[in-house]
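Record type: monomer structure entry
Structure origin: computed from sequence
Chain ID: A
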Amino acid sequence: MNEQQNNLKVNYWFLMAASGFILIGGIVSTAFFLKTNSLANKNITAATETKRPANLEWIAILDESCKDCFDINPVFDYLKKENVNFTSQKNLDKNSEEGKNLIEKYSIKKLPTFILKGELQKNSVLAQFFSKTGDTEENTFVFRQVGAPYSLAATGEVKGQVNFTMITDTSCTECYDVTQHEIILQQFGIASPGTVIDAKSAAGQALIKKYRITLVPTFILSGDMNEYPSLKPVWAQVGVIASDGTYVFTSGTPFMGTYKNLTTNKVISPPVQNSSQQ
C-alpha cells in the first residue's frame, strides 16, 4: 500500500512538473511567435512604406508669352518615374495674382519654374535631385536650375535665344548628316530647332563668305551664347568664335564623317581603319 502511495506521489509530481514545462514552453513559444510576428509586421510595413509613392503638390509658374522658353514638362515626367504621386497639379501664369505672390515670396528670378510641397525627403533619389537643382525649406522645394532660353520674372526679357543654322552641300550625297549636330548640341542645353540651308544658296554663300567657311557640312550658332557656359570650354577643340560672337564649327567637321572641301571642291572620306589599327 505504501508503495502504491509512493508511486502515486511520484506520478503526481511528475505530471505537475511536465505540465509546468509544457506551460512554460507554451508561454515562451507564444512570446517568440508574438515577437517574430511583430518584427515581420514591422518589416512588411516598412517595405510597404518604401514602395508607397511620395505625395507631392506641383505648382508651375510660367511665362505664357515665351513660346521658346525652357520646357519643364520633361522634369515633371522624370519625377513621376521616380515613384511620385502628384496629389494636385497647378499651372500659373506669372501675371496671375497667385503667380505674382509666389514669385515674390520665393524670390524667383527665372521662368518657367515649379514649386513642390509634401514628402520631399521620402525618396533618397528625389532628395538628391532636389539638393542639386533648387532650394528646400519647410517641406517646400523651388526649382532654380532653369535652362535657357528663359524669361526674367521681373522684366519679361528672354535670355538664351539662339539662331542655329546648319550648312550642307546637297550635291554631296555621301556627306555626313548635318542634323547630327542637333542631337549633340542638346547635351549642352541648346534645344533650339536648327535650320538647314544649302551651301550654294544665296544665304549659304553669304555665311560661307562672311565666316570663311571651307568645310561642309557645318553649322553656326549666334545669339545669347553666354547662357550656355558648358559649350565654350570645348568649342576651341572643334571651332572658332568670330569677332561678332558667332560660334562657327570648323576643325570638328573631319571628325563627323565624309565631308566636302569647298576650296578644292573635293569630297573627303575618313580613312578606313583595319582590324590592326582598331
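Annotation 1: The mean pLDDT is 87.
Annotation 2: Residues 160-268 form a domain with the Glutaredoxin fold (CATH 3.40.30).
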